[in-house]
């Protein structure tokens, strides 16, 4: 990695300007052959859809997919979205969903990684069990939890009634006030193992000598964690949090299967709302405009993601 | 917890106690996480061996009075219409996931190798484009892809899923593999080149065998991703005989809304292949996931 970057920099310094770039492209023409299959597939399936979504977002589209009959309406789709009440409700839900899921998944995953860092009997088995929710299908997970939350025969309701904490089983996912937190619990159940894996790997890179030196100098457990372990994990934490945030922002299956966005939009997040607009109500233009807005938000997040990653690389190069 | 650690006076005996405090805190926390993780899965298993009548009781039977494997028998019986559907969905999922996995490896290996080894203009740009793609949700691509698939005649075929999964799995596959190639010393290839091997021979004979763990990890990753994928399958397929498991199970459930034992048995069987695959090969899997982000 270091060698490669070094070479690029040297070349770039030798050959500034466009003619240099073109010459370099020609010199490396064989190298592109290795990437070409990947690029072609991605151009067809990624670049074209992005272009098409942007185009559709400026049109009023008929229901059904007879898209030849579409009319250009400028930014009307965008103004319609931004002035609708549902939009702000869905945005608020998405914000809570993304922040709460990301925060708790990361904290629980990190804490689990720390607790699992010391060797003990059964550690491997425990780790494997903890990762399983992340491996199984989100559809299966949604049904399992839907059954657990069931308003008549759900196990949580039965336990609460059995302990005398409730008179009758609560309606977890059929009530406007509890539906979103209930779904977030399911989402964290599936996501914290990812944070755990990442942080476990990160912990292995913390040099033992430093921790021992800190111990000799009289640092207690908390000080060792805060001053030695944590600074070492800053990069991997940033990447983990960003990946979690993006994944949560993009989630679809859990709300879609468990509630379909209801009751009365209380669990609709952006993605489920866009899906419903497009494939439920066939308002392709509005759905596309929503997608473009989503796109802009994600590009902003993506900028920080790339910056965090290249921050990593720069540090490696200088070390 | 932090306050205990900070206020405790320094000294040999006290330090022992302090460490025990942390250790016990960790144990209690792990026990809590184990319950959180495992109880839903245990409840799925217990429900799946109940009869439909036993599942619909309040208060619930914590352990079924008459455990029965009837739900599993029904799902796996090719004579029964439910079993026929389930086995067909299972086979469809297996076919789509395997095809996706094989193609991903074929396409991702050269790309990842190039990203790891060569410097060509746009290399960094391309690599970040690959990573960025990972950030965009399926929904953005659904409408145009649906139209595209219809235009090339792939709607209602498994080809549409394989092509889509391949594309959306590629960025991650390339990222995972690149981490492995970065760790294989360039000198090994250079030595082979000096001994007269072409670049391609050096790649096939030196790099490929050394990166086998990475390829295994990437393959598992693609397989699990394709096996669990829901939204494209839900949108592109409408014929019953072509559905994959996640969509098939949803359709099954929307027709039999009260058959919770059957649903739990189906969820369990849908999870078995990926969980087994993961448990057998978890070392590679975990290593690959973290290689790119942590060691880089």
From TrEMBL, chain A:
Localization: Cell membrane
The family this protein is said to belong to: Belongs to the binding-protein-dependent transport system permease family.
Gene3D superfamilies linked: MalF N-terminal region-like (1.20.58.370), MetI-like (1.10.3720.10)
Residue intervals passing through the bilayer: 32-54, 95-116, 128-149, 169-189, 239-258, 287-306
Protein name as annotated: Sugar ABC transporter permease
InterPro entries: MalF_N, MetI-like, MetI-like_sf
Entry GO terms, CC: plasma membrane
Listed Pfam families: BPD_transp_1
Species the sequence originates in: Mesorhizobium tamadayense
Positions of the ABC transmembrane type-1 domain: 91-305
From TrEMBL, chain B:
Coiled-coil ranges per UniProt: none
Alphabetical UniProt keywords: Cell membrane, Membrane, Transmembrane, Transmembrane helix, Transport
Cell location: Cell membrane
Sequence ranges assigned to domain ABC transmembrane type-1 in this UniProt record: 90-281
InterPro entries listed in its UniProt record: BP-dep_ABC_trans_perm, MetI-like, MetI-like_sf
Membrane topology, as annotated: Multi-pass membrane protein
Keyword Transferase set for record: no
Keyword Membrane: yes
Top-level taxon: Bacteria
Family annotation (Pfam families): BPD_transp_1
Gene3D superfamilies linked to this entry: MetI-like
Similarity remark: Belongs to the binding-protein-dependent transport system permease family.
Identification of the protein by name: Carbohydrate ABC transporter permease
Origin species: Mesorhizobium tamadayense
């Amino acid at each position: 990695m270091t060698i490669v970057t070094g070479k690029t920099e040297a070349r770039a310094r030798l050959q500034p300007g466009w003619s240099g770039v073109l010459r370099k492209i020609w010199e490396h023409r064989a190298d592109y052959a290795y990437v070409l299959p990947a690029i072609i597939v991605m151009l067809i399936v990624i670049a074209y859809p992005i272009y098409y979504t942007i185009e559709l977002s400026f049109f009023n589209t008929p229901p059904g997919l007879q898209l030849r009959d579409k009319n250009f309406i400028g930014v009307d789709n965008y103004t319609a979205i931004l002035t609708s009440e549902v939009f702000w409700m869905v945005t608020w839900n998405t914000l809570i969903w993304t922040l709460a899921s990301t925060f708790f998944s990361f904290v629980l995953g990190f804490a689990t990684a720390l607790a699992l860092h010391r060797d003990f009997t059964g550690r491997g088995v425990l780790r494997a069990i903890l990762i399983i929710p992340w491996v199984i299908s989100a559809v299966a997970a949604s049904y399992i939890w839907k059954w657990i939350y069931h308003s008549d025969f759900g196990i949580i309701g039965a336990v609460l009634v059995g302990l005398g904490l409730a008179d009758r089983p609560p309606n977890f996912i059929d009530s406007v006030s509890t539906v979103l937190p209930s779904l977030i619990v399911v989402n964290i159940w599936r996501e914290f193992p990812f944070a755990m894996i990442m942080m476990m790997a990160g912990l292995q890179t913390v040099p033992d000598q430093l921790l021992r030196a800190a111990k000799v100098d009289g640092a207690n457990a908390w000080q060792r964690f805060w001053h030695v372990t944590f600074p070492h994990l800053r990069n991997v934490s940033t990447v983990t949090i960003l990946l979690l945030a993006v994944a949560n922002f993009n989630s679809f299956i859990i709300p879609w299967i468990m509630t379909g966005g209801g009751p009365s939009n209380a669990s609709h997040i952006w993605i489920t709302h866009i899906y419903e607009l497009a494939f439920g109500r066939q308002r392709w233009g509005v759905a596309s405009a929503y997608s473009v807005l989503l796109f802009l938000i994600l590009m902003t997040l993506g900028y920080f993601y790339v910056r965090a990653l290249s921050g990593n690389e720069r540090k490696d190069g200088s070390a | 917890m932090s306050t205990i650690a900070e206020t405790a006076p320094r000294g040999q005996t006290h330090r022992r106690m302090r460490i025990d405090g942390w250790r016990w805190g960790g144990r209690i926390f792990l026990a809590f996480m184990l319950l959180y993780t495992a109880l839903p899965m245990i409840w799925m298993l217990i429900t799946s061996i109940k009869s439909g009548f036993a599942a619909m009781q309040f208060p619930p039977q914590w352990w079924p009075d008459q455990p029965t494997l009837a739900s599993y028998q029904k799902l796996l019986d090719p004579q029964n219409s439910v079993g026929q559907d389930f086995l067909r969905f299972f086979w469809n999922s297996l076919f789509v996931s395997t095809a996706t996995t094989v193609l991903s490896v074929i396409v991702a290996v050269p790309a990842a190798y190039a990203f790891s080894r060569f410097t060509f203009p746009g290399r960094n740009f391309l690599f970040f484009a690959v990573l960025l793609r990972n950030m965009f949700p399926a929904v953005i691509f659904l409408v145009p892809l649906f139209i595209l698939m219809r235009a090339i005649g792939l709607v209602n075929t498994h080809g549409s899923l394989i092509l889509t999964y391949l594309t959306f799995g590629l960025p991650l596959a390339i990222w995972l593999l690149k981490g492995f190639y970065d760790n294989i010393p360039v000198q090994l290839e250079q030595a082979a080149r000096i001994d007269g091997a072409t670049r391609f021979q050096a790649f096939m004979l030196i790099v490929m065998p050394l990166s086998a763990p990475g390829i295994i990890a990437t393959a598992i990753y693609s397989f699990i991703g394709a096996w669990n994928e829901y939204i494209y399958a839900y949108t592109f397929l409408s014929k019953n005989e072509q559905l994959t498991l996640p969509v098939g199970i949803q359709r099954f459930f929307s027709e039999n809304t009260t058959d919770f034992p059957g649903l739990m048995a189906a969820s369990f069987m849908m999870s078995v292949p990926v969980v087994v695959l993961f448990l057998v090969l978890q070392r590679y899997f975990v290593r690959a996931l973290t290689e790119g982000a942590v060691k880089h």
